[in-house]
Amino acid sequence: MPYDATKMADWQIAEEAEKNMPTPGEWRERLGLEKDEIIPYGRICKLDFMKIIDRLKDRPNGKYINVTAITPTPLGEGKTTTTIGLVEGLGKRGKNVGCAIRQPSGGPTFNIKGTAAGGGNALAIPMTEFSLGLTGDLNDIMNAHNLAMVALTSRMQHERNYDDAELAKRNLRRLNIDPTRVEMGWTIDFCAQALRNIIIGIGGRMDGYMMQSKFQIAVSSELMAILAVANDLKDLRERIGKIIVAYDMKGNPVTTSDLEVAGAMTAFMRNTINPTLISTVEYQPVLVHAGPFANIAIGQSSIIADRIGLKMFDYHVTESGFAADIGFEKFWNVKCRMSGLVPNVSVIVATIRALKMHGGGPKVVPGRPIPEEYTRENLPLLEKGIENLIHHIGIVKKAGINPVVCINSFYTDTPEEIKLVRRLVEQAGARCAVSEHWLKGGEGALELADAVIDACNDPVDFKFLYPLEMPLRQRVEIIAKEVYGADGVVWTPEAEAKAKMIEENPAYRDFATMMVKTHLSLSHNPDAKGVPKGWVLPVRDVLIFAGAKFLCPMTGTISLMPGTSSDPAFRRIDVDVNTGKVIGLF
């Protein structure tokens, strides 16, 4: 029986479900794992990826299901909730099923978005561990990232203080690092706008090298991107060694290998390659691995989690961040290209409220009551907003996949509104299912599960949007026009000069294109809702992630360090000193 989600908060549902959550030993028996393939961490565990993938390497892959969405409101439209609900629905149909989701960042958790564990009866547990660091992957990433900056800044101090002879005595060679071309900054997993631009090294000659520096949120670190795309520990180590930390006075890259810190960074991250295993409230397996943002990074759980999920489960569900123009586009043209894996189907999550927003409804602001236009029937507003959904259906179809649209049902949705969405979706050539997983768990997701099972039997003519040999500026042009619906692209002189340099350098020819764009619109302008017309995409810079092998065109005014709001979630979080339980987190 599902819990009464109308009367119980998520934490109360989680607390009840966690009483019977499988132990690491029970998971080992259920999933057919060997004793040394499971690594207990209290009441959760990690899976030893390398041992499992080696043992199961000859087992055929299961069905590969991607979950994406329409352009969301700032509140999100329940993509993780739908991912968990779909797994529960497939479980109710007797399928061997599991999923992979991203690890949540402390930034949103303690700010305005809250945890990313789903909700209601479509919830991942244990919620406290999931929301507060799990098995320490984020801490390992932050330590490894900041160690690179320690290596850089200490080397800069020593090169300033010592001549070449003294450096040689210390077994150091002069790198001649340009202090105005330091690419990396420091990282912390909070939304800390005060750290976007800082000065370090204030003091005497032994207090470091004084220069301008910066912080970024941990999930935007190149190390997080590397974890998401690495295939194994060897691949992880090689990629970490290629990270460009700065440039020298002649414009040559200075890497973590040049600083002789890549090995130590990998030592910090050695355990991060193993996904964490948690549970749905209906006790299906959930793999948690990597947590990069989708608007400023790849926005996917890891290739590693998908590789073992496809071996362990007959149906493996993986989630892409934000909407199809960002998350699915990167899943399609980056993650699948790097992994060699081909999806069977993509689920597009939509809500009536988000469609009404795209039809011209009032602004939705986190922390404020939802305007009444979103809780009463308004068919003209809804029909206008469905243009955004149809656009996202078209994006998925360009990959050669027949999508399934999931109407993530709210109690305020009316039968006529649902009927309208279903009719227009089917006219667009896609399946449509209504799902009540938040309210009813797996029982409420049976229609969605059946549609996905049916879609998994469709032939897939999977194809990338562009060949990897295509020059960077042409790739950006085709993404802007074919995915976002722009009329073209305009480059700042600095960005175009950098793009030309990249195109002329053979070292970058097989790098992936990782667009950096707002998630709140198909365009670069977060206030442009629906399907904007008559606009061009501005590119102001291109970031080079040599370890991840990403070229990141920067559009709009995206920041790698979000800010904390005036009413952040941490104001309501505490610990019950009598029980030790975290309260106010959800």
From TrEMBL:
Associated pathway: One-carbon metabolism; tetrahydrofolate interconversion
Residues binding ATP, per UniProt: 73-80
Record keywords, A-Z: ATP-binding, Ligase, Nucleotide-binding, One-carbon metabolism
GO biological process: tetrahydrofolate interconversion
GO MF annotation list: ATP binding; formate-tetrahydrofolate ligase activity
Recorded catalytic activity of this chain's protein: (6S)-5,6,7,8-tetrahydrofolate + formate + ATP = (6R)-10-formyltetrahydrofolate + ADP + phosphate
EC number: 6.3.4.3
Pfam families found in the cross-reference section: FTHFS
Family under the similarity heading: Belongs to the formate--tetrahydrofolate ligase family.
Name of the protein in its database record: Formate--tetrahydrofolate ligase
Lineage: Bacteria, Bacillati, Bacillota, Clostridia, Eubacteriales
Name of the gene: fhs
